[in-house]
Automatic annotation (TrEMBL), chain A:
<feature type="domain" description="ABC transporter">
    <location>
        <begin position="47"/>
        <end position="276"/>
    </location>
</feature>
<dbReference type="Pfam" id="PF00005">
    <property type="entry name" value="ABC_tran"/>
</dbReference>
<feature type="compositionally biased region" description="Polar residues">
    <location>
        <begin position="24"/>
        <end position="35"/>
    </location>
</feature>
<feature type="region of interest" description="Disordered">
    <location>
        <begin position="16"/>
        <end position="35"/>
    </location>
</feature>
<dbReference type="GO" id="GO:0005524">
    <property type="term" value="F:ATP binding"/>
</dbReference>
<keyword id="KW-0813">Transport</keyword>
<comment type="similarity">
    <text>Belongs to the ABC transporter superfamily.</text>
</comment>
<keyword id="KW-0067">ATP-binding</keyword>
<dbReference type="InterPro" id="IPR017871">
    <property type="entry name" value="ABC_transporter-like_CS"/>
</dbReference>
From TrEMBL, chain B:
<feature type="transmembrane region" description="Helical">
    <location>
        <begin position="97"/>
        <end position="115"/>
    </location>
</feature>
<keyword id="KW-1003">Cell membrane</keyword>
<dbReference type="GO" id="GO:0043190">
    <property type="term" value="C:ATP-binding cassette (ABC) transporter complex"/>
</dbReference>
<comment type="similarity">
    <text>Belongs to the ABC-3 integral membrane protein family.</text>
</comment>
<keyword id="KW-0813">Transport</keyword>
<keyword id="KW-0472">Membrane</keyword>
<keyword id="KW-0812">Transmembrane</keyword>
<feature type="transmembrane region" description="Helical">
    <location>
        <begin position="262"/>
        <end position="282"/>
    </location>
</feature>
<feature type="transmembrane region" description="Helical">
    <location>
        <begin position="231"/>
        <end position="250"/>
    </location>
</feature>
Length: 277, 300
């Protein structure tokens, strides 16, 4: 019962946030929110990328990408190794500086909306020997809501436990993070993102090298996010599961090859262009 | 051994300084170790020597604050040089540190021998400058301890205030960036804390061994616990205890410099921890053997 109330509360919260964003974003939305409008809403780009070029050295990794990612979609970013998939996400999230171009998220620059965004990095990018426990890592998801000098308290702990429950990791809450398997590590990351309670989730290869159980938990969570009105953007490498898991696809190979609904874009022609036959 | 030293005013002053400094270093040192940059303290410590000598040459005084400022400026220059070299060239950061460390320490030694016996720099006695290399508690004044006290408190308070941010930054830098933590600010904060501690501790511990204060207690802490809070407490305690013991040894026995004495005690504790802690070498060996024998029993 309590859970249901919480969920309803989250959904109303989300709707409120959506409305705010619509009001500030586009002017031509009609006043009443009928079913049709809700459907139209889902066609709204929540991430807008324009003339985006990124480079580590003198060679561009991402070249002049224009891209819209739609609200409430589960979007996969695919492409061959070195196509710049992770780099694109890092550029959108301002972790790396682009050479040129701009990004609008929910119609605003990243700085203004970062609290609505959760990022799940590749598990190799983290110092797993750091002396901390699973619960502690998940609580980090609340830091963005805490503000400077504030310590996480009872409420944060509760939210972290709820997230761990969803990931079936409660038994591990006291475990030192270095003692986890690859799949468990990924679930800890996802729990942290859940605790963060964002509107947009960016995941960098969350299904890379995880066990079947973890994969199904992660996919289940993505679907749940979608039901809650959230947007999920995932760097993905396994083309065989693409149609099952994702409703939108972005295909890149340094440049944008194609982007859109999976059934329209996930074609042999496009893949040939991206993966070079 | 003469235990009456313990009651001597000068010993109490010096011990208070080294203990507090070692405790603060224990806390801050965990950051550089967990970030995989243990050498940074070494590089900044060595690089501060020319700053001290130059500050003396320019000011003609051995005022602790002036010399400390020189050390800090040299430390910042070293830090920037390391960054520039590793950013612009293909040289890795640890190699860049080694280059800057040796070059600046070399410069410091050259400057020191240049002013030795040079009539132009006889306004103030140079004796005591050498203590910045190995550290000598005998030259410590109450002012020096006051500086150490202030700097250590600043470092610890900053660490406590920004604990959350520092922790995420060290554990998961990319994620920290996405939740609105200014990475540049945090890394600058860490650098400032490290440099202040090094500059304040130089006179006591010396440019060569100051980094051991940042490394050994932190290593000890990391051996005994897998919780960051506990690691910090253990690092603080082991730093404080070693500093006290080292200071006592250097005061009780003639010819023992303070820096090396403290370093020896710290290193011994760190080494024992690496050997005997629950996750230490010996425990690991034991578990491995136990597992192997149980495994072969199952097979039988």
């Amino acid at each position: 019962m309590k859970k249901d109330i919480n969920r309803i509360k989250t959904i109303t919260d989300l709707n409120n946030k959506n409305e705010e964003y619509k009001k500030s974003g586009s002017q031509n939305m009609s006043e009443d929110f009928s079913q049709e409008n809700q459907a139209a809403l889902s066609k709204q780009p929540i991430v807008h990328v324009e003339d985006f070029t990124m480079a580590y050295t003198d060679k561009p990794v991402i070249w002049d990408i224009d891209l819209d990612i739609y609200e409430n979609s589960i979007t996969a970013i695919i492409g061959p190794n070195g196509a710049g998939k992770s780099t694109l996400i890092k550029g959108i999230l301002r972790l790396l500086k682009p050479v040129s171009g701009r990004v609008l998220i929910m119609g605003k620059p990243y700085k203004e909306v970062y609290k609505n965004i959760a990022y799940i990095p590749q598990s190799g990018s983290v110092n797993w020997n750091f002396p901390t426990t699973v619960l502690d890592v998940v609580m980090m998801g609340r830091y963005t809501h805490l503000g400077l000098f504030k310590r996480p308290g009872k409420k944060e702990k509760e939210l972290a436990f709820k997230a761990l429950e969803k990931m079936k990791m409660v038994d591990f809450s006291d475990r030192q993070i270095s003692e986890l398997s690859g799949g468990q590590r990924q679930r800890v990351f996802l729990a942290r993102a859940i605790a963060q309670d964002a509107l947009i989730y960016f995941m960098d290869e969350p299904l890379q090298g995880v066990d079947i159980k973890t994969e199904s938990i992660i996919v289940e969570t993505m679907r749940e996010f979608k039901k809650e009105g959230k947007t999920i953007i995932v760097v993905h490498h396994d083309l065989s599961t693409l149609e099952d898991y994702f409703d939108h696809v972005v295909i890149i190979n340094k440049q944008l090859v194609a982007a859109g609904r999976t059934e329209d874009v996930f074609t042999k022609e496009n893949l040939d262009v991206a993966y070079g036959e | 051994m003469d235990l009456s030293i313990l009651k001597e005013y000068s010993f109490i002053v010096v011990a208070a300084g080294t203990v507090l400094l070692a405790m603060a270093c224990g806390v801050i040192g965990t950051i550089s170790i967990l970030k995989g940059q243990s050498l940074i303290g070494d590089a900044v410590g060595h690089a501060s020597l020319p700053g001290i000598i130059l500050a003396f040459m320019i000011s003609g005084q051995k005022n602790s604050i002036i010399l400390m400022l020189g050390a800090i400026i040299a430390g910042i220059i070293a830090f920037l040089l390391i960054q520039i070299i590793s950013d612009i060239s293909k040289i890795e950061a640890d190699t860049a540190m080694a280059i800057v460390l040796s070059a600046m320490f070399g410069l410091g030694m050259v400057l020191k021998s240049y002013i030795q016996g040079n009539a132009g720099y006889q306004r103030a006695s140079q004796s005591g400058l050498a203590s910045y290399i190995f550290g000598q508690a005998a030259y410590i004044l109450k002012d020096d301890v006051t500086i150490i006290f202030i700097v250590s408190i600043i470092a610890i308070v900053l660490f406590i205030l920004f604990y959350k941010e520092i922790k995420v930054y060290v554990f998961d830098e990319a994620y920290a960036g996405t939740i609105g933590i200014k990475k540049r600010l945090v890394s600058m904060l860490i650098m400032i804390m490290t440099m202040l501690l090094i500059a304040a501790g130089l006179k006591m511990v010396g440019a060569i061994l100051i980094s051991s204060m940042l490394i050994n207690p932190a290593v000890t802490g990391l051996q005994w616990s897998k919780r960051y809070e506990r690691v910090l407490i253990i690092a603080t305690l082991s730093g404080g205890v070693s500093a006290f013991a080292g200071t006592f040894i250097s005061s009780a026995f003639k010819g023992f410099s303070t820096g090396p004495s403290i370093t020896l005690v710290m290193s011994a504790i760190a080494l024992l921890s690496v050997l005997f802690s629950p996750r230490g070498i010996i425990a690991m060996r034991f578990w491995r053997r136990k597992m192997a024998s149980e495994g072969s029993m199952v097979k039988r």
